[in-house]
Design a protein that fits this description.
Layout (H helix, E strand, L loop, with lengths): L6 E2 L6 E2 L4 E3 L6 H13 L11 E3 H16 L3 E7 L16 E3 L2 H11 L8 E3 L19 E7 L25 H10 L4 H11 L4
Helix pairs in contact: 1-2, 3-4, 3-5
């Protein structure tokens, strides 16, 4: 009886009275609905059509703030961000001993190959890296991520063109121009370091 006339929030699925929920229909809420769907999918919830669904106050406020952040912050980009259980352990096996931060070359390589952004504080055991200190190729398809806005440090944004050397487009070693351009928006290290990344990590050897 206590739950009579209660409705579930589309994102968090908690039950609320109708007066505690806000609508997200209409053309003015297109972006809001898109974010709501992304958040629901990120939580591995069952697919549910967004039409005529509502949001609780907390989810609505959070999504509104996300929209403001994306609109006003030139360093806020929506990215597939690596998901891990603890950022102080190895991102693969959760080991705490003998772990090291991934190099920028490794992070660029992973981003271009998987479209997953790995932040600078992510750590790994050496056992999960190849002889070029890049993530083992066999592990890349299994990387988990959450699609969300990510506020990058100023030094991590807006690269000058040609900082990442173009790869030769061969049948077994191809990286799209879109992937390279996206990487240029995220990794602003010196041209020398990025040239090294291109030749060192972006090959399939």
């Amino acid at each position: 009886m206590a739950y009579q006339n209660r409705e579930a929030c589309y994102v968090c699925e908690r039950l609320f009275r109708p007066t505690q929920l806000s609508r997200m229909d209409g053309e003015e809420n297109v972006n809001k609905r898109e974010i709501a769907v992304i958040r629901r999918n990120a939580e591995n919830k069952l697919p549910l059509h967004v039409d005529n669904r509502r949001l609780c106050i907390n989810c609505s406020r959070s999504i509104n703030q996300e929209l403001i952040d994306v609109e006003n912050n030139p360093f806020c980009l929506r990215l597939n961000v690596l998901s891990q259980t603890n950022n102080s352990t190895c991102f693969v096996c959760d080991e705490v001993n003998d772990i090291h931060r991934l190099s920028v070359e490794c992070r660029i390589d992973a981003f271009i190959r998987t479209n997953i952004y790995i932040s600078e504080d992510v750590k790994s055991c050496q056992a999960h890296l190849d002889d070029k200190s890049c993530i083992l190729k066999i592990l890349l398809p299994g990387l988990r991520y959450v699609n969300r806005p990510c506020v990058l440090k100023e030094k991590e944004s807006f690269l000058e063109e040609n900082n990442i050397e173009k790869m030769e487009e061969t049948d077994e070693n191809y990286v799209s121009e879109e992937a390279e351009e996206a990487a240029k928006q995220i990794f602003p290290e010196s041209p020398e370091m990025l040239t090294t990344s291109s030749s060192k990590c972006l090959s399939l050897g």
